[in-house]
Amino acid sequence: MIRTTILAMACLISITALGQHAKQQRFSPGKIWEDTEGTHINAHGGGMLFHNGTYYWFGEHKTAGRGGNRANVGVRCYSSQDLYNWTNEGVALPVAAEGSGSDIEKGSVIERPKVIYNASTGKFVMWFHLELKGQGYNAARTGVAVSDRPEGPYTFLRSLRPNAGTWPVNFPEPWKSKEVTEADLEAWSPAWRKEVAEGLFIRRDFGTGQMSRDMGLFVDDDGKAYHIHSAEENLTLHISELTDDYLGFTGKWAVMEPAGHNEAPALFKKDGKYYMVTSGCTGWDPNAARSFVADHIMGPWKSLGNPAKGEGASITFDSQSTYVLPVQGKEDAFIFMADRWEPQNAIDGRYVWLPIEFNEGKPELKWHEEWSLDFFDQ
Ligand code: DGJ
């Protein structure tokens, strides 16, 4: 009798405990999203890795207030089996101590971390946008770190500006030796835009490496990986092939949307075609998303316009893209992952996840107050 009573009480206690953080079964875009301990998920500008049956979500650990957009902690990792319920796996890449002089020292800017797995080396490779401490957004570098385990800890290897001394594959010969410089042109004039599109900044940065700000990674079916980044003062996207170990650049790269002013690139593949969702450049404020399609990753890319439809489409439902997640085990199921930034209190930034629909070959995004993965079975 006593044993039965104790058992019943234990059950009651655990049900009550479970009830506090009841399992989530739906996505609620823009709302507080609690992890399994009841804390709002802290993984902004995130990316996803699926490995051995588990999803790993990596993102910027933000802190409170405006200064919370700086890297005060590092890159955080969460894991999940079902995409709704996320376990905090801790800090995957910690910042280095203040005053250490490391590129990733506390107070630098670490944004949009993405992790991919290299099957031949067995290593997990993280790339991220890095701005050096005290230099605003001028450094425009990309950083790389590596780990033996998906959740880390990751070891920082180096940061760089990619593709020094190499020309894009889609860059006409005469543009390489043009002598036009920034000083010759009025910024933002039509003549300036034309020269930007014809390599003004590529030539300027040829020796030192190209700028790299907002970035994403993509691993193709043949195992080749690509680093996609906003370069040339955010005016043009660069798509760069990574070395076989994913730790460096091969020097093969292409320009995409020259002078098109794109940020927040998220690349995915469906039915042999490459798709990319991007945003315009308006700081932390949302703007209209853009979408593109290509038969080859290095282009040419064709614009498909704003994928968002309906009310809120002109500001992408108050969000900015960060990643497109192919849902495992479901055909043609892709989730648009985006951030609703809160620059005044960075830690309160929200996540906007929406299903991608396809209409006449174009990706479409519609607002859903709530939704679940069943959406893809309809
Ligand atoms: C927009 C970018 O997409 C973000 O990652 C961040 O760099 C902000 N700009 C900074 O203003």
TrEMBL record:
N-terminal signal peptide: 1-22
Biological-process GO terms, alphabetical: carbohydrate metabolic process
Transmembrane spans: none
MF annotations from Gene Ontology: hydrolase activity, hydrolyzing O-glycosyl compounds
Record carries keyword Hydrolase: yes
Domain of life according to the entry: Bacteria
Coiled coil: none
Family of the protein in this entry: Belongs to the glycosyl hydrolase 43 family.
Protein name: Beta-xylosidase
Species of origin: Echinicola vietnamensis (strain DSM 17526 / LMG 23754 / KMM 6221)
